[in-house]
Amino acid sequence: MTEPSLPSGNDAQVSIPWDELRSLARDATTRSYVPYSNFAVGAAAVTVDGRIVTGSNIENASYGLTLCAECSLVSDLVRTGGGLLRAVAVVSGSGEPCMPCGRCRQLLFEHGGPDCLVEGDDQIRTVAELLPGGFGPDRMAQG
Ligand SMILES: [Zn+2]
Fold this sequence. Notes:
Layout: H1 18-29, E1 41-47, E2 52-56, H2 69-79, E3 85-92, H3 102-112, E4 117-119, E5 124-126, H4 127-130, H5 137-141
Parallel strand pairs: 3-4
Antiparallel strand pairs: 1-2, 1-3, 4-5
This protein binds zinc ion.
Zinc ion binds near residues 68, 103 and 104.
């Protein structure tokens, strides 16, 4: 796979292990629970303090309660000590990059902040680019 283009002006991606994240995300698709859609998605991320967290999508017979891979990833983040996501890769079962849905963009804003990098298609974007003006913890403090 060719390297995706990166957000201009962001030089912190140099230390992001994108190949490892993509590989772990692909592995995570094999642990998805997708009996209804058969559309597996995996996600892998590196945290600001260097930990790796992963997630797989988990469907539900009610459909609306389905958990995306990013939901599972954030659960793994919190379960393993919390902190802030630095970069996230999301792939489908075929190994193709997959864009986070609207709900997951909000989750990534909360747990990665606006500068978190996301590879969801042929380019890497910041969460701020995926969710302009996102509602996060800072907004709660404004009361
Ligand atoms: Zn989602």
